[in-house]
Task: inverse folding
């Protein structure tokens, strides 16, 4: 038996390295290769039959007033959204950490509810409420049957700029709230007590002690919100705000063969997002503003009473009301049979929900999204378990690289990845005399985007599954696996009979979340699905909004409500399984 052991080890290493090579090949083809194609299109130009390095495209970009205007608008949107989220989330986290009041769990659940409605969908209902002749102006008496006001207030701002800021803020402030809440809860109360005992006022303690300790978490959350807002495609499209970077990239997709601005804009987005992500990760890893250890001192939460308590709870109630307004407006639009020049629909109906399953466009989109999301979640579960197992249990060459590739999708906007797929997989019919029509039919998004949609959904959400499985492997002591191996079980039998059953909760939670996010993915769907028979749900919503027939917008909202239900069910299921650990998937 001893003589056979080296042979068994060699066999195991052969299988392991084959699997490892397949995973690296998958990530290289569908994660690294698209980025390389974008870089090549940005910096290389064909001259005299050879590719030569050039910066001429960036020179053209620098000389274009339109491109600078789009970049300024996108940066302004992202900065204003991030600042507004900070203004909302920071004091809110302070309230939840340092005050005691009834129904705190319910309040927090209501605060998180805005995450279940993608801003792309919420923007549809918000237009109905805040438009010049919308619900709010009717309630304020500025328009109506007996009011002659040709210029009512435009609450969304010229071109919908402020509408995008409002919608993104309502959707993204819970993310920053989670970061701020975790950072505040992790600060040692003894540090603040020491500052107070030295005579510092509450304001001085906040400025000199709490805020510096809070900064790494706030910056990490702010970087995520900034990148999300900067690369958001759906919301500006719905509001008709075309002069932003994301919409310009969307418009250039059909011109990728010859328009240099598409490549250049993607490089600008990639540089900003990766730079912010790397800086935030470096700040958190360095941990310059941390306490050495948490003391045993428990800080008493101050009860909310009197006028102060009434003002705080009233403010939170107003925030909940405003954050739920897009949800209510989308639901109302989905149930309206006629809604024009009135505060609320004149007629109500449920027929639009029936149309979802009878119209060819919407029914096909539902089937497509279910197929694409389920396939991507299954692919993520397989890859997530393998990668997490290797990162936790194995030592091998390339481990750091694999870890970096797994984290990279967090810093890679879907806009960039989808553009890279359009560029990189634009397979020609013939190449050097070879017939590539078979490859074009399965990989070129202009012909058939199914594989690329599934893979793009999977790549974008892979970090969630890896983190979920990674946490499960860390909690699963290796002695359980050793005991199974000592009883004669092989490695794969041990994984199938011991490891996977114990990780079932983490994998189900991560899989449900990846399915739900893929079901409502916006950027990848809008860019890669170019033919109606391949439209997923979000592309069908966008297509319906562009139609002029009566009821099309209401059917789009009904699809959005269905998406909300899917995402709510996913969050509820994951929260019941993971509890407080669910936030670790996004941090």
Result:
């Amino acid at each position: 038996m001893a003589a056979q052991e080296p042979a068994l080890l060699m066999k195991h290493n052969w299988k392991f390295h084959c699997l490892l090579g397949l995973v690296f090949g998958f990530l290289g083809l569908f994660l690294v290769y698209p980025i390389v194609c974008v870089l090549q299109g940005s910096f290389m130009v064909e001259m005299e039959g050879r590719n030569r390095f050039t910066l001429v495209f960036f020179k053209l970009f620098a000389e274009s007033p339109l491109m600078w205007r789009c970049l300024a608008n996108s940066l302004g949107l992202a900065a204003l959204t991030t600042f507004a989220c900070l203004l909302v989330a920071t004091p809110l986290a302070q309230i939840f950490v340092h005050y005691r009041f009834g129904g705190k769990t319910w309040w927090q659940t209501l605060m998180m509810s805005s995450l279940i409605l993608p801003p792309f969908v919420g923007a549809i209902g918000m237009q109905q409420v805040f438009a010049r002749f919308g619900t709010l102006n009717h309630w304020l008496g500025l328009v109506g049957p007996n009011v002659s006001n040709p210029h009512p207030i435009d609450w969304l701002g010229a071109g919908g700029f402020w509408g995008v800021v409002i919608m993104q803020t309502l959707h993204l402030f819970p993310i920053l709230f989670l970061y701020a809440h975790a950072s505040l809860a992790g600060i040692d109360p003894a540090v603040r007590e020491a500052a107070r005992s030295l005579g510092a006022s509450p304001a001085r303690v906040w400025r000199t002690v709490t805020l510096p300790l809070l900064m790494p978490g706030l910056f990490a959350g702010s970087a995520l919100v900034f990148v999300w807002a900067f690369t958001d495609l759906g919301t500006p499209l719905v509001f008709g705000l075309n002069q932003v970077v994301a919409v310009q990239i969307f418009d250039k997709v059909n011109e990728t063969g010859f328009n240099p601005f598409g490549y250049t804009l993607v490089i600008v987005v990639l540089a900003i997002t990766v730079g912010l992500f790397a800086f935030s990760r470096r700040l958190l890893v360095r941990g310059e503003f941390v306490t050495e250890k948490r003391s045993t001192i428990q800080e008493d939460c101050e009860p909310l009473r009197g006028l102060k308590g009434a003002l705080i709870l009233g403010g939170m109630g107003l925030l909940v009301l405003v954050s739920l307004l897009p949800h209510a407006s989308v639901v109302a639009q989905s149930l309206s049979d006629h809604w024009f020049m009135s505060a609320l629909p004149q007629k109500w109906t449920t027929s639009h929900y029936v149309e979802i399953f009878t119209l060819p466009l919407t029914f096909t989109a539902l089937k497509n999204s279910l197929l694409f999301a389920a396939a991507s979640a299954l692919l993520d579960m397989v890859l997530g378990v393998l990668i997490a197992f290797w990162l936790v249990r194995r030592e091998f060459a390339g481990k750091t690289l694999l870890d970096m590739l797994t984290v990279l999708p967090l810093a890679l906007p879907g806009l960039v990845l989808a553009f890279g797929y359009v560029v990189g997989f634009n397979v020609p019919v013939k190449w050097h005399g070879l017939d590539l029509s078979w490859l074009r039919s399965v990989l070129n998004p202009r012909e058939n985007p199914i594989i690329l949609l599934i893979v793009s959904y999977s790549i974008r959400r892979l970090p969630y599954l890896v983190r979920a499985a990674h946490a499960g492997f860390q909690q699963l002591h290796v002695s359980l696996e050793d005991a199974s191996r000592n009883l004669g079980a092989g490695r794969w039998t041990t994984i199938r009979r011991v490891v996977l059953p114990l990780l079932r909760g983490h994998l189900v939670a991560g899989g449900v979340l990846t399915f739900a996010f893929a079901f409502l993915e916006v950027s990848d769907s809008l860019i890669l699905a170019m033919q109606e028979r391949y439209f997923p749900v979000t592309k069908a919503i966008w297509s319906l909004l562009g139609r002029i027939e009566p009821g099309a917008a209401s059917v789009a909202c009904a699809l959005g409500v269905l998406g909300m239900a899917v995402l709510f069910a996913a969050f509820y299921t994951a929260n019941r399984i993971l509890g407080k650990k669910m936030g670790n998937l996004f941090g």
